[in-house]
């Protein structure tokens, strides 16, 4: 027997080995599956390596297991891995092997996983277990994030199922959605909902719509919420309607509050709303108790007491205080409420660390609690139902013993907490059994807090009175739990760690307990549906209908295809974009009608001249058309309802006399441009459909039919990418081999010219296409009163040879135009002083520039210039002045330094601009920051604008990288030979007048310019000179971005390569900066005004200029533009950093040597009251302000000039100007931005008065530069005592004053926002009963 069994075992093993050997020899098939049902998974691939004998049925099962979809809810189609062309479905129920079905061993077999019958695949759900799932259901802590294991088996799947959100929990209860941080609200609402007495009483209240807005009625919104919690089929419902009735906005959802605080505030609000109704005393009847608050002297025995009411009883977790007492203070409970609320005081304040803390100590509580032992014997006569009368009434009496202090104490030996189960009857006065049974309470709600004192999460454990089952209500999740889970909320740690056990304890513990009195005569049951009042029945029906309507709407949304729709408007010729929403069962014909109306084409084209085609917007490619499928549902055409599609739809239009072209899958679209070498023009595109396997010869025949050009002499050029023009000269090559893709652009030329025989890169065709590829269309806005308007007419007449009309285009201005001598002369006269400040090096450059000018003149002599004749007609005086200017200013047409200009600033004119322009504008917006220092958060530049004079005294000369000479982007317009770099190679330029759209500036002249974007900005400006009417050095070019933001283009040697078609350019008159010049904003400093910073004007400062010279330049501008008639010694210039005044610039300081000047530079101009006191770099100027505490006011600012950084000298100066004795002077440094405003209610205690330092340049003062604010006071002066009314009035005034100035009202840390419920729904009115 043994041997026969052994032999059979060996036979079976041999059979298995032979099968394995056969399987090893069997060929394998590699399947690569692409999930196209979701945009997130379309780029992912699933790979299966299967034996060739695998049945197709098994293939589907393996794919379903691999991707996590239910088998039978998807389809597999053949694909080539890149596109879906030519895909055919695979039979899922076939028993064919994958080898017989066409799969190839040893090769990659690409499959596409798609929707089935227009519905997305169903995500596979794991089967619910028994023991494991039961353990998960009892999970009551904070739930994991989405995508991880939750408390119910609906959340096991990695993908979030939409249907599981809508389905009701298997417990039968509905959760509440957490708006953001409203878990505390959800816990309380679920507890109230699970309280039969409260829910029944709420249902009996009837809302009168005529008396109140339903959205603002708190009881009505609670009614609606409770009805939804009882009848909704959803897993969770929103609480936004309830919080809206509280008068809360969305910001309140981000404020976490205490659940006990919310309970009190909400009960007060309900009492206010229920006045004059049957529910007026509901809160008191259910939750209010009565107690005696007493104080008894331990020596004489005298006792004073009063009667109080309460809604909850706070229980101390860890008692603090002295062990020695002279009086007995305590509470005696006279009456316990029907619903007893116990608050465990887990939040306390640690005076060692000065922070709030949470006590996680262990605190046990029984399921049943006998409260009869806590009733005072002397006060048994007080009926339990008696309501409190005067809570403040005092009386006298005696007490036998103080039970409360013993009962509610912390026994360190027992779990380090309070155990109410350990009540010993022997230690207390026995009472009648009937009384005890009447005060027996059962626990039904535990509100749990998880986290710290800084924040955390609330959820509720509630026992249902219907089945005595405990449930965890954790926001939208509801699950069953056990009594063991309740014990886990006691808190504490497993082992004994002494006093510091709280630090090692769990942060998830009970915070609020609610007990209900066990009294069969009062214990209510939830109302049944037939017992509902009539108004609740109507409300249930209404909410049910709304939910059904919402469900139907969701179903419609779930079956609605949403896809991008494009349409080229037939008359406006602009591409329009919209979103097409169409039900999956609508036919293609109906979808065309919807798209037709959506694109508003009723007046442009008939409906029968429109159709929908599959479109790829990224490649501008028409994938296919849908001939003969007008009655096909859109769900089938689009491949089902999806969140996103890999393609778009185009609403194609035609003229009535045209016929739609058929677009077949697999074709490529080619836009054919016909080139005419004689006219040097490129025609608009003609669309041609071709196949990738066609040869170039066949493709030429196709183009010949479309364009009527002979194929024999045809040259075809393919533009594969930018500036890549490929001549298709191999007739036998296929289009795919030549690099054709979905959408292509080709240029064709077919003529008998000799250009065909020239090398392609030297041919006229290549040059024309190269120019065409690099030509862009720009819209140029000329100045509103451009002096070149008449000049331009003359230019057109001279260059065109015909009577020039202003509207006729002036094409190809080939040379730099001559300068407008008279304008330049005026300009140079106004800037003669600036030029005289140039360094000797600049003068030497001027001598060299003289020869370059003459070379320039000879080079331009033979170039046709429209301004030559105008220049020849200029007066001899102007020509002489022009020559003089060229000698004295060789850099007139050289590079421009970046200005500080933003939009408005560049509209404003500098002092030089104002000599030739009469208008000036304000300045205050963005600036061009191609190479400018980056602004930091505190308003400072990324490098120091001006080095501290204190530190500069010990430093060598500091080089700056912000000057024009060192800026690589400000090279000269001319090369070494003097010839314009823009003319070194001919660049295409063509312009014509253009009428701008409405709203683009009425009366403003526009040019539409076609220009080669390889042209430099310098040459581009020279081409614009005839239209602007001034030399290129006297106007500025601004590029207009989105939202009409303008940035100045100043790098003359850079090309226009960053520009693109239809970009807008604005030309503004004004002299461009030369090398070493900077445009500077000048602000007036008004230290004692509400707004201390006032913009005055723009000025131009030059490198090498002294401060005094710049002040001299400012004097006439201040007089003419600002009305300030000053002398040079009556004002100073100083550094400006944001709004803070800084270093005082001395008259002998030189820009770029002593003062680092930069683009985007700003300075303060300060008018002096007397003679300038600042004479040396070693001095220090601070702004002092006296604080008078006895009068609660601040004096005006006074400047104090110190000879050193000594604190003693500062006090002496302050004593000198104030009359305060030196020994009584106290000072503090101001905080924040100038003028360092602070509330007068806070200045006396909030500032760091009288720092213990001897010098000002050390911590905590760090006063190293001019402009620091110093507050000082007389330390013997007492602070004024204010009444509450005076303080409140002063607080309002200070708050209003500081808010107007934009300064902070207080420097105190942010206070926690108080919880309020607004009874009228308006948060701006404080009617909260808190």
TrEMBL record:
Residue segments, region Disordered: 380-406, 834-924, 938-980
Listed Polar residues bias regions: 384-406, 883-893
InterPro entries reported in the protein's UniProt record: Papain-like_cys_pep_sf (IPR038765), Peptidase_C19 (IPR050164), Peptidase_C19_UCH (IPR001394), USP (IPR028889), USP47_C (IPR045578), USP_CS (IPR018200)
Compositionally biased intervals (Acidic residues): 962-975
Protein name: Ubiquitin carboxyl-terminal hydrolase 47
Xref: Pfam families: Ubiquitin_USP47_N (PF25985), UCH (PF00443), USP47_C (PF19718)
GO biological-process terms attached to the record: protein deubiquitination; proteolysis
Catalyzed reaction equations: Thiol-dependent hydrolysis of ester, thioester, amide, peptide and isopeptide bonds formed by the C-terminal Gly of ubiquitin (a 76-residue protein attached to proteins as an intracellular targeting signal)
Keywords recorded for this protein, A-Z: Coiled coil, Hydrolase, Protease, Thiol protease, Ubl conjugation pathway
GO CC annotation, single: cytosol
Residue intervals of the USP domain: 174-518
Gene encoding the protein: USP47
Coiled coil, from the record: 532-559
Enzyme Commission number(s): 3.4.19.12
Compositional bias annotation for Low complexity: 836-845, 908-924
């Amino acid at each position: 027997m043994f041997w026969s069994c052994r032999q059979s075992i060996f036979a079976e093993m041999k059979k298995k080995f032979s099968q394995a050997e056969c399987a090893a020899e069997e060929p394998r098939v590699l399947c690569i599956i692409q999930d196209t049902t979701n945009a997130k998974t379309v780029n992912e691939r699933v790979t299966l390596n299967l034996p060739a004998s695998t049945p197709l049925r098994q293939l589907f099962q393996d794919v379903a297991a691999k991707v996590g979809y239910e088998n039978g809810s998807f389809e597999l189609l053949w694909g080539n891995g890149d596109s879906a062309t030519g895909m055919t479905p695979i039979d899922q129920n076939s028993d064919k092997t994958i080898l017989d079905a066409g799969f190839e061993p040893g090769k990659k077999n690409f499959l596409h996983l798609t929707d089935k019958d227009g519905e997305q695949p169903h995500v596979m759900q794991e089967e619910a277990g028994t023991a494991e799932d039961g353990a998960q259901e009892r999970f009551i802590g904070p739930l994991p994030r989405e995508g991880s294991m939750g408390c119910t088996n609906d959340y096991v799947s990695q993908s979030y199922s939409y249907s599981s959100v809508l389905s009701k929990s298997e417990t039968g209860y509905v959760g509440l959605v957490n708006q953001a941080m409203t878990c505390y609200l959800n816990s309380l609402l679920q507890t109230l909902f699970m309280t039969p007495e409260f829910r029944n009483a709420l249902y009996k209240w009837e809302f009168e719509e005529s008396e109140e807005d339903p959205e603002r009625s708190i009881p009505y919104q609670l009614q609606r919420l409770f009805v939804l919690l009882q009848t909704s089929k959803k897993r969770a419902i929103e609480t936004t309607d309830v919080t809206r009735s509280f008068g809360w906005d969305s910001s309140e959802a981000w404020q976490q509050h205490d659940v006990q605080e919310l309970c009190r505030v909400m009960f007060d609000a309900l009492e206010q709303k229920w006045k004059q109704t049957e529910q007026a005393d509901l809160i008191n009847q259910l939750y209010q108790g009565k107690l005696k608050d007493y104080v008894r002297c331990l020596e004489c025995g005298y006792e004073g007491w009063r009667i109080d009411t309460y809604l909850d009883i706070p229980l101390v977790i860890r008692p603090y205080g002295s062990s020695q007492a002279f009086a007995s203070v305590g509470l005696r409970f006279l009456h316990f409420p029907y619903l007893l609320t116990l608050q465990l005081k887990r939040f306390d304040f640690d005076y060692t660390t000065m922070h709030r803390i949470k006590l996680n100590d262990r605190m046990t509580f029984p399921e049943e609690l006998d409260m009869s032992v806590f009733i005072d014997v002397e006060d048994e006569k007080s009926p339990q139902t008696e309501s409190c009368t005067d809570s403040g009434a005092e009386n006298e009496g005696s007490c036998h013993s103080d039970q409360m202090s013993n009962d509610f104490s912390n026994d360190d030996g027992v779990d380090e907490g309070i155990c109410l189960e350990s009540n010993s009857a022997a230690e207390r006065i026995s009472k009648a059994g009937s009384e005890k049974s009447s005060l027996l309470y059962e626990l039904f709600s535990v509100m749990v807090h998880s986290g710290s004192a800084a924040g955390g999460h609330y959820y509720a454990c509630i026992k249902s009175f219907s089945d005595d089952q405990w449930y965890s209500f954790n926001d939208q999740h509801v699950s069953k739990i056990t009594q063991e889970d309740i014990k886990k909320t006691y808190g504490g740690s497993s082992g004994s760690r002494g006093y510091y056990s709280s630090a090692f304890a769990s942060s998830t513990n009970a915070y609020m307990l609610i007990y209900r009195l066990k009294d069969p005569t009062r214990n209510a049951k939830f109302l049944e549906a037939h017992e509902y009042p009539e108004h609740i029945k109507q409300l249930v029906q209404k909410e049910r209908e709304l939910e059904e309507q919402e469900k139907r709407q969701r179903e419609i949304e779930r079956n609605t295809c949403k896809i991008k729709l494009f349409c080229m408007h037939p008359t406006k010729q602009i591409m329009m974009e919209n979103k097409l929403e169409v039900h999956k069962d609508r036919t293609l014909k109906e979808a065309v009608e919807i798209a037709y109306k959506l694109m508003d084409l009723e007046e442009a084209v008939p409906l029968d001249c429109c159709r929908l085609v599959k479109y790829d917007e990224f490649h501008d490619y028409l994938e296919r058309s849908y001939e003969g499928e007008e009655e096909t549902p859109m769900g089938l055409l689009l491949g089902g309802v999806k969140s996103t599609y890999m393609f778009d739809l185009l609403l194609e239009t035609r003229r009535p006399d045209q016929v739609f072209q058929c677009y077949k899958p697999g074709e490529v679209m080619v836009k054919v441009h016909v080139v005419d070498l004689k006219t040097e023009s490129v025609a608009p595109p003609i669309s041609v459909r071709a196949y990738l396997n066609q040869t170039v010869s066949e493709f030429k025949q196709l183009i010949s039919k479309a364009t009527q050009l002979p194929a024999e002499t045809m040259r075809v050029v393919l533009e594969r990418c930018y500036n890549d023009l490929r001549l298709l000269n191999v007739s036998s090559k296929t289009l795919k081999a030549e690099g054709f893709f979905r959408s292509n652009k080709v240029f064709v030329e077919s003529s008998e010219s000799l250009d065909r025989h020239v090398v392609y890169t030297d041919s006229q065709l290549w040059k024309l296409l190269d120019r065409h590829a690099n030509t862009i269309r720009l819209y140029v806005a000329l100045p509103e009163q451009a002096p070149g308007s008449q000049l331009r007419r003359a230019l057109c007449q001279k260059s065109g040879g015909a009577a020039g009309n202003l509207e006729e285009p002036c094409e190809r201005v080939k040379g730099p135009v001559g300068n407008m001598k008279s304008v330049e002369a005026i300009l140079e006269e106004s800037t003669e002083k600036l030029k005289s400040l140039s360094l000797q090096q600049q003068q030497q450059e001027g001598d060299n520039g003289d020869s370059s000018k003459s070379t320039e003149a000879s080079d331009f002599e033979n170039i046709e210039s429209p301004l030559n004749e105008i220049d020849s007609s200029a007066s001899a005086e102007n020509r002489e002045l022009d020559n003089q200017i060229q000698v004295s200013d060789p850099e007139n047409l050289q590079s421009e330094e970046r200005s500080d200009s933003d939009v408005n600033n560049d509209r404003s004119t500098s002092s030089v601009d104002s000599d030739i322009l009469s208008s000036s504008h304000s300045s205050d917006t963005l600036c061009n920051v191609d190479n400018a220092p980056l602004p930091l958060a505190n308003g400072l530049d990324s490098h120091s604008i001006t080095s501290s004079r204190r530190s500069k005294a010990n430093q060598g000369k500091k080089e700056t990288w912000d000057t024009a000479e060192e800026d690589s982007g400000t090279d000269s317009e001319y090369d070494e030979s003097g010839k314009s770099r823009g003319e070194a190679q001919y660049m295409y330029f063509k312009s014509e007048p253009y009428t701008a759209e409405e709203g683009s500036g009425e009366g403003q002249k526009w040019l539409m310019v076609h220009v080669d974007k390889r042209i430099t900005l310098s040459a581009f400006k020279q081409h614009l000179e005839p239209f602007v009417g001034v030399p290129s050095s006297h106007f500025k070019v601004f590029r207009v971005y989105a939202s009409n933001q303008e940035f100045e283009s100043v790098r003359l040697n850079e090309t226009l390569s960053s520009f693109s078609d239809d970009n807008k350019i604005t030309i503004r008159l004004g002299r461009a900066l030369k090398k070493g010049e900077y445009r500077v904003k000048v602000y007036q400093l008004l230290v004692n005004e509400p707004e201390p910073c006032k913009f005055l004007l723009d000025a131009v400062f030059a490198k090498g200029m002294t401060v005094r010279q710049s002040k001299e330049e400012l004097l006439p501008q201040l007089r003419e533009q600002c009305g300030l008639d000053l002398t040079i010694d009556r004002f100073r210039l100083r550094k400006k950093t944001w709004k803070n005044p800084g270093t005082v610039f001395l008259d002998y300081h030189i820009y770029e040597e002593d003062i680092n000047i930069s683009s985007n530079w700003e300075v303060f101009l300060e008018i002096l009251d007397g003679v300038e006191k600042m004479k040396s770099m070693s001095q220090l100027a601070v702004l002092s302000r006296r604080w008078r505490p006895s009068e609660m006011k601040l004096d005006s600012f006074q400047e104090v000039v110190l000879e050193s950084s000594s604190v003693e000298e500062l006090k002496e100066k302050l004593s000198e100007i104030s009359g305060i004795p030196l020994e009584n002077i106290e000072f503090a440094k101001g905080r924040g931005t100038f003028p360092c405003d602070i509330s007068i209610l806070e200045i006396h205690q909030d500032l760091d008065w009288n720092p213990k330092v001897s010098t000002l340049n050390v911590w905590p003062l760090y006063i190293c530069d001019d402009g620091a604010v110093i507050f000082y006071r007389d330390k013997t002066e007492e602070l004024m005592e204010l009444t509450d009314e005076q303080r409140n009035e002063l607080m309002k005034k200070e708050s209003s004053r500081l808010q107007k100035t934009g300064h902070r009202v207080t420097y105190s840390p942010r206070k926690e926002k108080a919880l309020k419920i607004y009874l009228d729904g308006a948060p701006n009115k404080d009617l909260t009963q808190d």
